[in-house]
Amino acid sequence: MEFGPIAAPMPKERGDTGQYVETVTLEDVLEVFDRVAGPPVVTSGDVAEETGLSRDSARRKLETLRDRGKVERRRTAGRVLYWRVSDSNS
Fold this sequence. Notes:
Elements: E1 13-14, E2 20-21, H1 26-35, E3 41-42, H2 44-51, H3 55-67, E4 71-76, E5 79-84
Antiparallel strand pairs: 1-2, 3-5, 4-5
């Protein structure tokens, strides 16, 4: 799987309370599917590389998208592959 140029990691920002604020949105994660060469299937590692998130944060975002019916997943050879689900309401 080939990607375009890897974006620079997004800096972590802290809010007024000192906690990190979310800088990578779920929409940002969905856009990674549009940037992959070949079949639009990604791993949490792919999302991490493209967005600057940690792999764990990327996985959590992908799982949130899965919970919302935007992506599906399958485990194969020790990896979890994610792909976008067609939105039948569009």
